[in-house]
Structures are given as C-alpha cells and as structure tokens.
Amino acid sequence: MQQAASAPHSGLSLPVWSWLAIWAAVWIGGPTAILYATRGVFNGWHLALSIFLAINLLICGWEISLWHRIGDIRRWFHDPGNSPDRPRGNLYTTPITLREFFSTRLWARTWLGYAYWDDGYADPRSFGFTIDVGNGFSTLIPSLLFLVGMTVPLFSPVVLGIVGLLVFYQKFYGTCLYFFQFVYNRRYEGRAWAGLVGVVGGTNGLWLVFPAIGIYVCLRLIFENRFDVIWS
Predict the structure, then answer these.
(1) Which of 167, 137, 144, 141 is nearest to 63 (CA)?
(2) Which residue, among 60, 66, 57, 54, has the nearest Cα to 106 in the 3D structure?
(3) Are 229 and 221 in contact (CB under 8 A)?
(4) Is-contact 46 35, C-beta < 8 A?
(5) pLDDT in tens, 43-83
(6) Where are the domains of the chain?
(7) N or C: which end of the chain has fewer CB within 10 A?
(8) Which stretches does DSSP call E strand in 26-93?
(9) At what angle do helices 104-114 and 44-68 cross, to 10 degrees?
C-alpha cells in the first residue's frame, strides 16, 4: 500500500530572518514604546538592556534546543554521510511558519553551524554545552521578569536590581570562563582568524559588554533605590 504524503505545513510562511525581525519589534520596540507612553522618556540604558534581553530570550530557546537535540547535532556533525536528515542551505532564508519558529529542531541548526568553530557544541561532555544549556534553563524566566520589570513597576528598584544582578553576573562570568577554556584548550587551531574574531569573539563578546551594562544599572537600582537610571 502506498504511504500517504505528509500534509503540508499550514499558516503564514516567512523567511527565518523575517520572524527574527518581528521578534525584535515585539521585545525591543514593545518595551521602548511602553516606557515612552507611560513615562514620556526614551532611555539609552533601558534600550541597551531591552536589546540584550530580547536577544537573550531567543538564545535561551536555542540553548534549550541544544540540550534537546544534542543527539542530532552530534550525528549531523560527526557522521554527515549517514545523516540524510541533516539540514542544508541557509537557515536564515529558509521559509518557516510561526510554529516552526519555536521548533527545537530548527534552532539545532545554529549549533551545527557554530560547532565548526567550536566542536564542543557537538559534545555533551564539553564546557560550552554545559554552560549554555545551564544558561538556557536558569536565566529564561529571570530575564523575562527583568525586561518586564524595568518597563512597568512589577517590583521595587532593589528587588529588580537583585534579580538583574544575579542574571547579568552569571552571564558575564560564564562568558569569561568560556573564552578561557576556548583558548586554554586551543580550540582556535586550524580555524580562520577572521571567522574566529567575527563568530566566536563577536557573538560571545556581546555577553560581556551588555552584562557589564546590566551590572552597572542593577547596582544603581539597588544603591539608589529608585528607577531614575532607566526611567529618566
């Protein structure tokens, strides 16, 4: 008996980059617009942390996908010849539905690409795998709470500052350790320096710069016990 063809995906289909743009509009434009509408201000610190937290919320989903799909990533990376389901083509131009945007299989492709710069991401015993999976599960909710709480008064300035300080310090410290193990284990050997600087240094560098900004903002929230640093 001939097997029935699988049903086509239903719903609006857009390239991945378009869904990412919508994500940015919601999680960056939304808080910025709400702050302006409620406080009548546009604050640079608030905008910087909105950008970082919007990215981080997305990355948390990617990191959970890394944990959930590490078996696929290992197989795709180490045994591509025996992986007929191995993704091909440019991820960011691939047309997908909103449902597929939240698929762990889709974002496993980002780690397959990154594994060519750091093969630890195809190995669940590595530090990179462990720190990123840990960040995905442990900072998703606190990051969301901080993003909302720095836009509308859910918490006192001190409570918000403590929540943010825990999140931003963890990310800053974890990134420092990641760079240390990358260099110490000489994972840069055999790879193009331009790519290392752009891919490894550039992407991970964001997790040093923006958490440092977050630590500064959180310390002011705690010591001043008011929201002036992000609301004026």
Answers:
(1) 137
(2) 66
(3) yes
(4) yes
(5) 999 999 999 999 999 999 999 999 999 999 999 999 888 88
(6) 13-80+87-231
(7) N
(8) none
(9) 100
